[in-house]
Amino acid sequence: AQSVTQPDIHITVSEGASLExxxxxxxxxxxxxxxxxxxxxxxxxxLLKYFSGDTLVQGIKGFEAEFKRSQSSFNLRKPSVHWSDAxxxxxxxxxxxxxxxxxxxxxxxxxxxx
Amino acid sequence: DAGVTQSPTHLIKTRGQQVTxxxxxxxxxxTVSWYQQALGQGPQFIFQYYExxxxxxGNFPDRFSGHQFPNYSSELNVxxxxxxxxxxxxxxxxxxxxxxxxxFGPGTxxxxx
Lengths: 114, 113
Description:
The structure holds 2 protein chains of 2 kinds.
Chain A: E1 3-5, E2 10-14, E3 19-21, E4 24-26, E5 32-38, E6 45-50, E7 56-58, E8 64-68, E9 73-78, E10 87-94, E11 103-104, E12 108-113
Parallel strand pairs in A: 2-12
Antiparallel strand pairs in A: 1-4, 3-9, 5-6, 5-10, 7-8, 8-9, 10-11, 10-12
Chain B: E1 5-7, E2 10-13, E3 19-24, E4 31-37, E5 44-50, E6 53-57, E7 64-68, E8 74-78, E9 87-94, E10 103-104, E11 108-112
Parallel strand pairs in B: 2-11
Antiparallel strand pairs in B: 1-3, 3-8, 4-5, 4-9, 5-6, 7-8, 9-10, 9-11
């Protein structure tokens, strides 16, 4: 069965500082990995995705993530955080074998200090 | 190009009632998946529809049912509502044979009193 763990429930970061959100997954086959962002009361917006190939993927809003198969991780990073990045971030895993079903982590809430 | 749309945006029901939520997929998409997001949690997969059939189902009781129409839009029905059904219900669309990326709508927030 698929599972996703986001170890950090809350992270507070100063504006302009770097941000790293952790994601660990458990899945037997080759996973598809995603990061979504959710602003309060909103739906989910796709930040980036990994299917295959280059393990460092670039996304929207200056985010990037690195797939490390040996560590079963897909951590999200941003070099310099803006106040508008305050939101909840979800890591998700899917696969062709799972028929597009996504399994989400519990989310990490990011607070940005001025 | 319209994205995924959902209606209504908010809904208040009482225990035991029935509710229907609606979703229109992104243009060109043929698959609709439904997720339940309880407060403070990540979304959980309810089921997925393709070619008007339920293709996959998560760990949800039979009180949760759905339908997909020929134009690919979809409905989620919940019968005999419980307080624990209060949540944000998210619809996502994708291509069944495509790149597996799911695009989400804004959600319907259901409150059961």
